[in-house]
Structure formats: C-alpha cells, structure tokens
Amino acid sequence: MNQQIKQTILDKIKQYDRIVVSRHIRPDGDCTGATKGLVEILRLTYPQKDIRLINREYAQYMAFLGGEDEQVEDEFYADALMIVLDTASTDRIDNPKYVLAKELIKIDHHLDIKPYGDVSWVEDQRSSACEMVVDFYYTFRDELKINKEAATYLYTGMVTDSGRFKYAISGETMRCAGVLLDVGIDTEWLYANLNLDDYGYLKYQASVYKNLQRTRGGVAWLFVSKRMQKRFGLTLESASNSVSLLDGIKGSIIWVAFIENPKTGAIRIRLRSRFVHVNKLAEKYNGGGHECACGASLKSKREIKAFLADADALITAYKATHKGWM
Ligand code: AMP
C-alpha cells in the first residue's frame, strides 16, 4: 500500500545528511517507540548521517526504553529533513522548531483532519504508527537495517497502542509483529516493564472501582480529582492511565476518564469505545484521535456535565439503532 509515498520518503531520507525526528506532546508508547525505532533503523543503515531524536517531554513509564537527544541550535534545522510520527496536527508536535526544517514529512495513523507536511503518509486503519514504521522497514528490507533495540522499541508501541493486540488490529498488524519477533525481542522483560504496578497503584485501582459511575445509557466514567492524585501519590501520567481500568464493563461501550490538572484546573479527557465511534464527540470538545480512542480537553470540571450528556445521547442513539454490541 502507498508504495509511491514510501519510496518518496526513502528518497528524501537518502537525500539529507541531517534528519530530525519528533512526535506528539504527552508522549505514549506508540510515538516513543515509533520515533526511537525509526531513528535506530536510520542510524544503523546510514551511520554517516546526523540523525537526532528531539522532543520536549518524556513519558516516565517509557523511561525503560532509554533517553532522547538534546535540542540543537536553529542552524541545524536549516538543511535538515524533519520527520514527525504519530502526530495528527502541527499544534501537537512536541518540537516547536519543526517550522525551521527544510522539509517536513508526516507519518501517522490518526484520522487526517488537519493535514500537514511536504510529504504525508497517513493510514488511519493502522493499529499504531509503529506498525507503519515496521511496514516501511519491511518494504525496503533489502536496503534498511534493523536490530533488537529497534525491534523492541517498535514492538512496545505496537503492543501498547493496540491494547495488547486487542484494538484495531489486522492481519498486517500481526505480520508486522512477526517481523519484529523474528529479529528477537525479550518479551518477558518487555511485559514486566509494561505490566507490573506499584502496590500503591493497586490501592488506587480499588478506589477507582469504588467511585466508578455510569450514565443512564451506560457510559462508564471516572473523575480523577487533584485530591485523589495527591492522596495516592499519582503523577498526571499515572492518573491518566486510569482510563484502561474501565474497558471491561458489559454494556458500557463508551468509557471516559476525566483527569483534573492540579495546577490549572483544566480537565484532560481520555475517551474510549468499542463498536460505536467517538471521534466526532471528541472533536466537539477540542480533541480528536481515532474512531474508538480519543483525547479532548475541558477548561474546568463544570463542563463535565455537558460532555457526559453528549456522550449519553451518543450511546443511547447507537444502542437503539444497532445490534450486536456488548
Ligand atoms: P489519549 O487518550 O491522550 O491517549 O488519546 C487517544 C488518541 O487520541 C491518541 O492517539 C492521541 O494521539 C489522540 N488525541 C488525544 N488528544 C487529541 C487532541 N486534542 N486532538 C487530536 N488527537 C488527540
């Protein structure tokens, strides 16, 4: 698929001596793995090129994959090719210097609502951006090199963005995962890093289930207040992970975590669903993402009621007009 675009991207990579790779703000496993994986593949294949991985924030729970490069002077960008992965719109790029680069390439698997870049390769049916990087590697496997480190970064993103191979997967997903496993990944080490929780986090989970609520139509939701974050010693990141605790409730085909920012009072929304698509709902609230996994934000907790009313209307209408959901 998209052979011509992939060829153009490879030609651009070959053409430049300097390449900067960046990803989206509030990093997760996919954008971290995709950028680190691509950088490793390119450094192995083209050791003479100066390739940098530059972003501002770093995901604490991805720290086991290692660090990134420091920001460089503006001059570096003037002759550089910039590759941005897993980032739907320019306002979400975690490197404001992308504007200085000579050319910009977008590689992404989100819905392409705000296109950008001199070259854009978007496949929104892909389970992760990592899957796209693997596909890119595999397409040019006679030319590109890969090693265990790159395979591990990419597998991490595939595993996390697909909810451990549960969401949005295809035959392609598993074929790409197979390519990485053939390179050799220590999956026991990887899953230990991804799955083990601190004792305190389990106590927090107990409180999540105690405080869980549902709308009349069945939207499961949770408000992680700043008080709760303080009480359980949560970082904003670990508080945000609570959304995955709501994904196994029968009939709750939409679920939401509202996370209060202790400093600003703004509310981060993490919105998930099965069967029904929620991206339009997220877009209404300043967000976006995928059909069944979106993010959005509210200025304050006073807006939660309106959001839940919209979510409830959506779930109710869906249930009334569709069969087979659970
Ligand atoms: P999150 O809940 O933050 O993991 O977001 C779920 C998906 O939606 C991820 O793929 C994000 O990159 C994407 N996303 C989150 N927030 C936004 C936003 N404000 N605009 C567009 N996409 C978003």
What does this structure look like?
The chain is an alpha/beta fold. The protein has two domains: 3-194, inorganic pyrophosphatase (n-terminal core) (Alpha-Beta Complex), CATH 3.90.1640.10; 200-321, Diaminopimelate Epimerase, Chain A, domain 1 (Roll), CATH 3.10.310.30. The protein starts with a helix and ends in a 5-residue tail after the last helix. The protein has helices at residues 3-15, 29-45, 74-78, 129-139, 148-161, 171-183, 187-195, 199-211, 226-231, 236-240, 279-284, 304-321, and strands spanning 18-22, 50-53, 80-85, 103-108, 119-122, 213-214, 220-224, 254-260, 267-273, 288-289, 293-298. Adenosine monophosphate binds at residues 24, 28, 88, 110, 270, 287-290, 293-296. Adenosine monophosphate is lined by residues 24, 28, 88, 110, 270, 287-290, 293-296.
- CATH-defined superfamily of the largest domain: inorganic pyrophosphatase (n-terminal core)
CATH architecture of the largest domain: Alpha-Beta Complex
Query: What would you report as the Rg, rounded to the nearest angstrom?
Result: 20 Å
Strand numbers in spatial order across the main sheet: 6-7-8-9-11-10
Fold-level CATH name of the largest domain: inorganic pyrophosphatase (n-terminal core)
How much is the average pLDDT?
96
The first-level CATH class of the largest domain is given as Alpha Beta
The number of helices is: 12
Q: What spatial form do the alpha-carbon principal axes imply?
A: globular
The total beta strand count reads 11
Helix content: 25-40%
What is the H/E order? HEHEHEEEHHHHHEEHHEEHEEH
- Output the structural class: alpha/beta
User: How many domains, in number, for the residues?
Assistant: 2
**Strand portion:** 15-25%
* Ligands and ions found: adenosine monophosphate
Low-confidence stretches: none
User: Biggest sheet: strands, sense, closure?
Assistant: 6 strands, mixed
State the distance separating the first and last CA atoms. 33 Å
